């Protein structure tokens, strides 16, 4: 079966846009071409030149770099004749030994376990495209579910911020593993860039297609069709599970607004102690200082570390507040048909969803500094409860974004099945 399943006309495949639910027939794409939704401009499909070899090679190289990053010294720090050297794994191991198990497990998951699983899964699935290995459906499902929780890029940003904070008082030396980790980040990013999701699922099983040709420009809901968000298959609305990936599929996520609002309220409640309670304890020449997110920002600003102070302020204060406020606003719009403006709000939703995970940077800075700065009364850093609470805020807002169904923003917008007909039904190919 070619990567593009073919409908009754012999040249295209029916898709429902995951963001606005508009039904469109995709032409068979050539290598390097992309197809975008005609109504909301969301990317519907992108064809890679070689769907098998590049992702497998990038993923294998990334795994090799991750292995090297764990084998050799990562970073060392010298202060007043004392030297501390850590390995990459120590970032979570030290936290675990200091009885911050929840933070240690979280850090280990998002910078080691999940990224490693994703790379292994890509290799397995790519080999599976050639040799039909078992359990590919489950591996693919878990891969796409875990992808947003791989935060190696954010950890790299956290490392750079930590270096800027420490370099004024200590001598920092970068080990071989640090450079291996940088390469791992790049290769990990590149692997997902060249991963052809459509071709991957098509290699597992052809996309199920409705028997009759449906009208473009109508929504899936109006034609009693729904989209599997996991594998992009289109199925009748009565069918409970996707016949290709066995995921439970809903025409609209059940109780989406209620779940999103509940998670947002939880994030609001957690945000207060996360900012009031200290996230980090610093010991310097026997003097103990507990710092909150805001006091840490003020200290950096007073020390003249303006770029880092601005990044921390944006990531830890501005982004969570804006994300929570925007998500509340989108919930309000989705429940108020007369106000809903689908395209603009759809873009805003995608933006806050993408940028929200970067708030984790401050937590990773604390985790890394706690692992590296261990000189007893001379200089030490310890994580405090505020860091755990702030991580909980970030996770809760990420879950809120996942619970929100963006199609609700479009349900009252013009389409062919609404009174104000949506006329332009040509798919946009770039
Ligand atoms: Zn769309
Ligand atoms: Zn599916």
Q: Give the domain tally.
A: 3
CATH architecture of the largest domain: Up-down Bundle
The radius of gyration is 24 Å
Task: Tell me about the largest β-sheet.
Answer: 3 strands, antiparallel
Bound compounds: zinc ion
Provide the CATH topology of the largest domain: Butyryl-CoA Dehydrogenase, subunit A, domain 3
CATH class of the largest domain: Mainly Alpha
Shape descriptor: globular
Contiguous uncertain segments of 5+ residues: 1-10, 419-430
Indicate the multimeric state.
Answer: single chain
Binned strand content? 5-15%
Structural class: alpha+beta
Strand order of the largest sheet: 4-3-13
Put simply, the count of helices is: 13
Would you mind describing this structure in some detail?
- The protein has 430 residues and is of the alpha+beta class.
- The chain folds into 3 domains: 1-47 and 206-243, no CATH class; 49-191, no CATH class; 253-414, Up-down Bundle (Butyryl-CoA Dehydrogenase, subunit A, domain 3).
- 50% of the residues lie in helices and 13% in strands.
- It is built from 13 helices and 13 strands.
- The strands form 5 sheets. It has a 3-stranded antiparallel β-sheet, with no helix packed on it.
- The longest helix has 31 residues, at 101-131.
- The protein starts with 11 loop residues before the first strand and ends with a strand.
- Mean pLDDT is 87; it is low at 1-10 and 419-430.
- Bound molecules: zinc ion (2 copies).
- Residues 17, 19-20, 22, 37, 39-40, 42 line the site of one zinc ion.
